[in-house]
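If I may wish for something, please sit down with the protein I am sending here and say whether tokens and residues agree:
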Amino acid sequence: MKLRLLIAVLSFSFIFSAACFNADDEQSDDSDVQAAAPSTTTTVNSGATTSTTPETTTTTAPATTTTTSVPGTTTTSEPTTTSTNPPATTTTISSTTTSTTSTTTTSTTSTTSSTSTTSTTSTTSTTTTTLGPITCYEDMDLDGVGKQDVTQVFDDGVCPSWWAEAAHDCDDGDILRNELEPELPDDAVDQNCDGEDLEMSDDTGVFVAKDGNDANPGTMDEPKLTIAAGVELAEQSGKAVFVAEGEYDESVSTSVSLFGGYESQNWTRDASRGETIINAQSETAVIIEADSTAAIEGFSINGRDLSAIESDCKSFCIMVAEGASVIIKDNDMTAGQVTCMGERNYTRGIINNGRAVIIGNEIDGGRAAGSDGYVQGVENSGFATLAENIIDAGDTTCFFGYEYGVDSSGPLRMMRNDVFAGYHEIATFPHVTGVATHGMCAATLVNNVIDAGSTECGYWENASAASFGADMASRYSTLVGNKIDGGSIGGDHTRMYTFGVRAYNESLLIGNVIYGGQSYYSELFDDPWKLIATGVDTHDDCVLINNTIDGARPIYANITTRGISVNDSPLLINNIIDAGTGQANSYAIEMQSGAHLTMYNSDLWVDSLGTECLVYVSNICLDLISDINGCLWPGCDESSGNISDDPDFPTDSYHIDYGSPCRDAGADPAAWFTHDMTGSDIDGDPRPCGAAWDIGADEYCAWSMRNTGEMH
């Protein structure tokens, strides 16, 4: 089989595609936690083993929760897990790339959830969605605004990665420069491409300081006292607001830019002089109003703390309304601590319903306690670009606890962020995710570090917990050069499942390092299917190229670990797939019912204390690489060039050395797949660097300096 795909990778648009946003509720569910397992294993000829399988185990995974564009309005689905795979979304793409036009034909069968804001159950049906053609513009800097002179037509109604619906970019190498952006002051950069920079003066700004007075005219010499008064005057005069250091106990709603960090004598910015702090006095500290163009830069923003005997308690730092175009830059944000005795306590760092470029911030999603807690660093239902942020989802101590570093139902681009899903302290039914995407829009993640965090489960015999580094259920997801960890879960009497990546809808994974996470009991149980750790869980026709995947390194547990769980029909090329060290079972690849696999030049490695299988399929354990390459096992479409050797990482968990069996053992993916991002490794080194491609996320180059400082 020759499978040749051409996928260009993420979609964004300020002129939002109705097709992209009309299917927000198409989400992943947790119904793929497979609980069927061999109870006895018998070795047969050719190294294969056959097993008998106990009765199907049914588990219930934590709900998938999404807050809509109305703050605090949450839809919750509570999926039930069985050994039967959920309905799949399958997309076939055929395209030809040119600098002018091309055609992409897509037919999609999608799973759609129907939910209400109060129900905890869901109704799922399978529908066929056919979307009309859309003209997209090349967007190399991933700011969601493309170049007008490079276009391509996609027939499925969604701009894929590195393409956008809007065409107003004057500098496709800078995410802060296009015609939709607000101006930033005194940086000698023309953000909105109008030929002028914003220079701070009484002509361009209203000034606010702690020694001011709201009766003042708002000049440098006579500033206002409150930010709200400064905003009111600035909106009347078309100016920005410049705020001096100090604490401002107020919540602000604005359609103009706010710039903090100044001293009030000469109005210069000096970080050593102190912070400009906004302490929220209501639900949201700062609201950027609908259809405005504004920037928020240089503040420390704190959500309110709230403790009450009520439900639906909320604490948010920044909310971007629909139609707004904003830059949120160089701020520190911490949502408040919400402890309400009723249900549904919500905290958020940022809620974006418009178009937002979020760059260089430190974002903490706050803390929620009570019955149900929902904490998120960033929630995006609009159109978001996130770059170089430190994002912490926050913490919960709730009976039902949900933590997301980033949760997106709209177009999403993430580059060079550090995302941590927070710490769950004694949550009985926790659901923790570093980055979650869903809906009909596209998502692109490039060079991020994502960790699902740490969870301590409560004491409940039938409880369940799930942890995901990245849960990619949007229509097109592209992950390139990321380091992703499925996190850790510990506790007693709890079903615990960790995933490095769960990928749907033709997701594309290139050059990532993915770790399945770890689970552990404080007591040792004899049921290996209460704990499962998986590096990558694939659904639909995903493509994985040159990734390094590790099932898990569990602690004190009778656990099953899997490098890759295969659903539907993925394509695997040049991947290192380590089964992990499950003390019960370790599978480099586990094939689910009805799945098919095409695999070339990958390293399948197993070294554990439990049952070891290179491929586990239909109760058959294949443990010889000759059987894998022979492709005589159920579901194998093509398999060749694969090896089974210790990849030999001398300094860390993914850099190979000269003597590694993975060096020069890969294949050029161009024989099956074409994409520009396959031409370099996770460090940016070119591929190939030797006689042939290497296997895994790292390409060995003798001249390359690694982040360890050693010659490699």
Remarks:
- The helical segments are 18-21, 227-237, 625-630.
